[in-house]
Input
Amino acid sequence: GENVEQHPSTLSVQEGDSAVIKCTYSDSASNYFPWYKQELGKRPQLIIDIRSNVGEKKDQRIAVTLNKTAKHFSLHITETQPEDSAVYFCAASIPSDYKLSFGAGTTVTVRA
Amino acid sequence: DAGVIQSPRHEVTEMGQEVTLRCKPISGHDYLFWYRQTMMRGLELLIYFNNNVPIDDSGMPEDRFSAKMPNASFSTLKIQPSEPRDSAVYFCASTSVPGVTEAFFGQGTRLTVV
Output
């Protein structure tokens, strides 16, 4: 099955700075890559996703990039704010499988 | 729609007891997933259903775990007998088309087995 690795496990940034989280996947057939944000005690919620026919996608302060050749994708958060503090999960999905394989998560702390 | 609804939100039970977790997916979503979240293992997929039929249960850790989906609006995850290592947050999620549409998660059930 698909194996997703995520780095770093924790990330502390100053408010206003950028945060970058990187993930790699193992199966070149994967074609769907969502990112979920989970606040403390809450459910994971989708914040952005990208498909394999696109190299980059942006939504206000968040962006995701995908490098299919290297099999890695990244989440970029610019102008971080305290409300960005949460655990972020990357995931990958193989078309024939329907399962989302999640990374281990990155705990992001934005310092005021 | 109120989203994916799980019950109970919290469950504390004694080792050896049977535990039943419940999930109501979003209406119209044909796929339902059960996940377990722990600090050590992160988010693990236990089982998923398509049109009420279990498709992949390879993530179910042991025979003590079982899941059913008797109709399109209800699913259960049962642990019998429960053990302390089953303590975790269990999430249910549903979606229309995996890999195309968003998977929506329920609020989760925090299970503590003492």
User: Anything to note?
Assistant: The radius of gyration of chain A is 13 Å. The mean pLDDT of chain A is 95.
